[in-house]
Amino acid sequence: MPRRLSAVLSPAEALPSAVTALVVDVIRATTTAAFLLDGGARELVLTAEVAQARAEARQRGALLAGERGGLPPEGFDLGNSPREVHPGRVRGRTVVMTTTNGTRAAVRAAVAAERVGLAALVNVGAAVRWAAARGGDVVLVAAGREGRAALDDAYALGALVARFRGLEPDARLDDGARLAQALFLAHPDPRPLLQSSAAAAALAQVGLAADVEVCARTDALAVLPELAAREGAALRFRPVYPKGV
Amino acid sequence: MPRRLSAVLSPAEALPSAVTALVVDVIRATTTAAFLLDGGARELVLTAEVAQARAEARQRGALLAGERGGLPPEGFDLGNSPREVHPGRVRGRTVVMTTTNGTRAAVRAAVAAERVGLAALVNVGAAVRWAAARGGDVVLVAAGREGRAALDDAYALGALVARFRGLEPDARLDDGARLAQALFLAHPDPRPLLQSSAAAAALAQVGLAADVEVCARTDALAVLPELAAREGAALRFRPVYPKGV
User: Fold this and answer.
1) What's the pTM?
2) Which of B5, B8, B10 is the best residue to mutate to test the A interface, defined by the most A CB atoms within 10 Å of its own CB?
3) Smallest CA–CA distance from A11 into chain B, residue
4) Is the predicted pLDDT of residue B197 greater than 90, yes or no?
5) Cβ–Cβ of A185/B185 closer than 8 Å?
6) Which of A86, A88, A177, B211 is an S-S bond match for A7, by CB 3.0 to 4.6 Å?
7) Does A12 contact B at CB distance below 8 Å?
8) Residues A108, A203 contacting (CB under 8 angstroms)
């Protein structure tokens, strides 16, 4: 029986259980996560709260990254911008990262699925190869925004669905997957679509509009951040480089 | 300032407050509601529970309509099929109706908005004329399915957004409205899109696949079911026939 490919567009919805989950917060957490590991960071630790991120970073001797309201909290080494990631700064380091929506989605995914990866447009091919390499149902989880479905995440879910169907034309799509795929297929160029999202508008308000173009670079990176372990309330991800299937 | 037009695709999401709400359960509750009032029913009373529907119908001397699992509960006069609605049967009558998702969405909308209408593809033009005739923010509320966003409802929300923008090009869309509109614009013919939904698949399993084609008849009806009163846990709707704006 072909596998089921579900897409949960709204962070308010319950996740179906699955073998594999891909978590998407395309503007910007999962994009930046991919850039951090591609830039040579050894591992990435996600936490939900700022205080917890500070404690984890102290304990691990790690760099501290993330945002509240789009900007880095006081004392953080990095924000949540993929443009800040320079290999010279992150290579070999552990990075502790806290973001508003992406971390929450990853925590939920880790409950619903056996294995969890972080996906964005920049690593859509790597994410799909990784997910397809093992059998069983796949769920795509959008981080969303303020408890609602977000246009940018829905679009990236659609890109993942379309690419997955390219590998496995018989995969059974749920309504969410069909909806996301239709959005993606109608907009071959991600840039104007991402630019029209509420997330892009919020970035423009804090002077980070240029991040959106980076988030739109489909297949720029070959890395997939894969959940290696839950450590208390923190999620530790390591880089993997999925081969073609 | 141009008004805000929001579309809430998932029944799990909180509704923003608005002056006007349009509730959509295109397969089939709001389609059937429009057919009932177009067919001459005097009013329509929505209830969430079957037992409550029976009590309301007894008390009001009303016809009893609705579904559980797609089929009419025992002793009901009508199911939830627009094809069952014959003017000879419903003219002048009050109809009490209970459906799984549509009623719940209408109850939520009645809390969030001052005025509530029921919209589907069959009355998309009437619904938009009614909503646009008064100022203030508008929220489009999808009933969804099993707590998740549904493809058919998202498409109908997109039809409403596109039509609304035709009247008011400056209306400010949220991410949900943009997502729904993109789905609609990519599929000018509603039939294959609705047919691919989980709701259509469920209808086919109970022998009601032919309902879907009726739900796809855009602008077939000029009626808008408008919330007249909340009466305890029941919502009473009356027919209005919005003129052009």
Assistant:
1) 0.94
2) B10
3) B13
4) yes
5) no
6) A177
7) yes
8) no
